[in-house]
Structure formats: C-alpha cells, structure tokens
Amino acid sequence: MAKSQAPARFGTWVCGCFVGLCRCLQRFWSIHIMGFFVKKKEERLPPAESIFHKEKIVVLGHILKNESLAIEERARAAHRIGLLAFTGGPMAGTFAAESMKEVALLLQSHKMAPKAKILLLQSVACWCYLDPAAQNRAKLLQLIPILTAIFDNEPESTSKTEIKSDLLVKFWTCYVLSVMTCNNLPLMKELREEGSLKRQLQVLAAGDWAGWPENFAEVLYFLIGFHKN
Question: What Pfam families is this protein classified in (predicted)?
C-alpha cells in the first residue's frame, strides 16, 4: 500500500512546487517590474493611445535600431517596448517581436553598461511574461543561447563594484530565463541541453540574493529539472 501511494505523493509535491513557482514569479513581477512600469505609464502614455500600442512600438523601435544614439537611450526604448507588449496583449506582443530582434543583437554586446543590459533583460521578461507565443518567438531568435552565454562572461576588473554589477546582470538573466521557460516544455528541454548551465546555476544559487523575493538561480534549476539528476 505504501508503495502504491508514493507516486501520488510525489505528484502532489511536484504540483505544490509548480504552484509555488508561479506565485513567486508573479510576486516578483508585481514588486520589481510593474511597480516601476505603472509609474512610467501614468507619466508618459497618453489616454487616447491605441490599446494595441502599435504606433508607439513603431516609434520606439526606430529609436532602438538607431545606432547613432547612445546605447542607454536605445535600451530605454527597448524597456518601454517590453511594457507596451505586456500591457497591449497578444497583438502588441506581435508588433514588439520585430524590435526584439534588435534586443537579441544588443544582448550579445560585451561593451555595454550593466544598467543598460538589465533594461534589455527586463524588456525580454515583459515581452515573454505569461505569453507562450512570445516565448516561442524568443526561441526562434536564439535568445536561449544568447542569455546563457551571459553566464560565461567575466568582469573585466576585480573591483568590487564591477563584480557586483556583473553578478546583478546574471541574477536578472536567471529571472528572465525563469519567465521565458515557465510552462514551456520545449524551452525547458533546450535549457537542459546547455552543457555547463547546471554548474553555473549551482554557483549563482550560492550567491547573495538578499533583496530578491526568491533565489531565481534555484528556481530555474528546479524549473528545468536539474534536481532530478
């Protein structure tokens, strides 16, 4: 009898963990992402703007792609596109997909301030949040290898400030990958195939996540099934 009950207990445990993960992502989103975005929306978005935000996304997309502008300004445009993709629904996400090609290219640059890179990461998180279509488009844009490559980056100096900034970028990368892969089996499978990712997440999970509601390196580690090996 005990043996027959074991699978049921395990299934209940897995369901409980998944529900907890979803709540964790939602709580972090509300506190650290939307708390900032709502203020920006109130200050800048005109009341008469189309629900799908197409025109705004197009304008911001031109800023994002303008190589003559400072990278920080382009990253802020990407940040706003992510917000509009989230608030505008599936159609806005479709319009934003074109701009995300440029975000994918920028994320591969090593010559970028951590603050700008975090804005780009937040843009991807907004675009993919609870949107399977955007998550699948992100996969086509090769964002999984682009994001996991960030874990291989090392700070150019040994100063405490630069090391801390580099770690913060990697923490945000863990969060973005958690958002992208949540409830998306193909993306989970692709991440499991990243050879060095398991060890990298173990190292990041041992870092100082003070100020974060969850240790998202651990969340991602569990989400893609490394705990089973």
Answer: ARMH2
- Joined tokens for residue 165: 């900034």
Cβ neighbours of residue 58 closer than 8 Å, sequence gap 6 or more: 95
| DSSP-based three-state secondary structure for 206 | coil
pLDDT of residue 137: 94
Alpha helices in the chain (DSSP H): 2-28, 35-44, 54-65, 71-88, 90-106, 114-128, 132-140, 143-150, 160-181, 185-192, 197-205, 216-223
Residue 127, domain member (yes or no): yes
pLDDT tens, position by position, 155-167: 877 889 999 999 9
Region for residue 225 given its phi and psi (left: phi exceeds 0; alpha: psi -120 to 50; beta: otherwise) = left
Integer angstrom CA distances of residue 210 from 3, 12, 31: 41, 30, 15
pTM summary value = 0.79
- Total number of domains in the chain: 1
